[in-house]
Each structure stands twice: as C-alpha cells, then as structure tokens.
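Mods, move this if it's the wrong board.
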Amino acid sequence: MNATTAMEGHRLIDLSVPVDPGYWEPEPVRLEVVDHRRGGDLLGKSLVYVEGTTRLSRALAWVKHKVGLGVDHRDFPGGKGLSLMRYTLTTHTGTHMDAPYHYGDLNNQGARARTICEVPLEWCFCDGVVLKLRPLSGTEGPVSKQEVIAALDAIGYRLKPLDIVLLDTGGDTHIGESRYFAQFRGVTREATEWIVQQGVRVIGVDSFGFDAPFARMLRSYMKSRDPGDLWPAHLYGREREYCQLERLTNLDKIGRPHGFKVACFPVKLARADAAWCRVVAIT
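Not the wrong board. Structure tokens:
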C-alpha cells in the first residue's frame, strides 16, 4: 500500500493501518463476503419489500421470488450484481480515535463525558507535530514528560493550543503480529498531562495502546495494589478531556517535525466511545 500520494502541490501521508482479518488481533476481525452473484440475489430479494405493502402482498411477492418470477443475479449483466461485505470488529480495532467517554462515563464536572460524535471537528484538522521517541527495544518504560520536552527542544518547537501531537515510538514495527500488542512503550500520565496542559486536545501514538502494555500494568498493580498503575494516561482524561489516536503508522514518512496538517475525522458512530479514523498528514 502506497503511504504517500501527491496532490496539487501537497503530499498526503497515510498514517492509518488497515483493518485486516488476516492480521493477528486479541479480538479477531471477522469478515463475511457476499460476492457479486449472491449480491445480485440479495438486491433482487428487496423487491419483496418494495411490492409487499401488506402481509398478504409481501407473502405473494416472496412466493414469486422463490419460484423464479422475481429478480436475481441472472437478470444482471454477466450474471453479477453488487457485492457486500460484513465486518465484525470493535471500535478500537485498527487506527481509531478514543473519545473522552472511553476513559470514564463522567467528566470532572460530573456531567456525561463526550462520545465520539460530540468531539469538536475543530480538534480533528489542525497543525501537526511529530516527536521522535525511538529507538524501541521492548524494554524501555513509557514516554516521560522529560522526553517530550527534550524532543520539542531538539526541533525548536513550542506547542500551541489544538496542535495534534504525534508520538513516533517505533511501536508500529510489528503490525499484524501478536508481539505488536506486547512490545511497545506507551505514554506516562505525566507526559500526557503536560501535553494536554499546553492546549492540545488530540495526541496520537504509533502503538497498539496509549498506556504501557497491558501485562506490564497488570503485573505492576498486582504487586502494588495501587489503582494509579492501571491505565494512568487514559484515566487522566477523566480530569481534563482529550482524545487519543491509537495505532498510527508511517510517522517517519512525514519528513518534517512540524509545518504540516493532520486530518483525523472519526466515523460518526452514535453514542460510541471511539471510532475508526483514516488519519492523514498533509505537507
């Protein structure tokens, strides 16, 4: 898949991973393919509901369809109608945006937290900045506040409100493999809090999760019994709302640390905690 496309003097860099049933996932993606032949039959079957305005007329239309007096794939050119595919997946499969509701049902004012449809569109098309926080060996702890500040100093950039901050940790190295879900850095609560305090509302990371790997957090909690060890960066979103972009890729292909736009509009899933995004950098 080509990650970069040129368009009228702009370069578009695809920062999204595909939703692929062939990829290893903790909750597997299921795909049902209705091919063009079956699709033609399915389209023809809709005549039953078009003509069937009453129970009797619908029953008659159904009988006509079953005995071959309706429309099926044979009536389409080449014996093929239109295809259809049914995917079964979670709102957190593939590249997606987490809404504040994902972190908790209530915000710090005690009101219901924003769902994905309530995320302001103004947050989803803004100036981007990439912070290089590699290399990844699988042993480093989550990205710290000090690392974020040092990475900004290294590129001579100061965050401003509504910047979209993209963290290049090398977490996309093993996309499609089981180790993709266990070998990544994650981000500390302190780093998250500091970025959000600069007026940032969307932070993206190129790994499966935004916090440290699940097993690491759970083992830490089993030793300490401190709830602060459990998904601390996510749960900071209960105190001050922000959105996470998880499972990004190709951050190294943007080619510059800032001076580009990011578009990350989520699919409009009613009342959802998250939604899939086609995230694109525009240089």
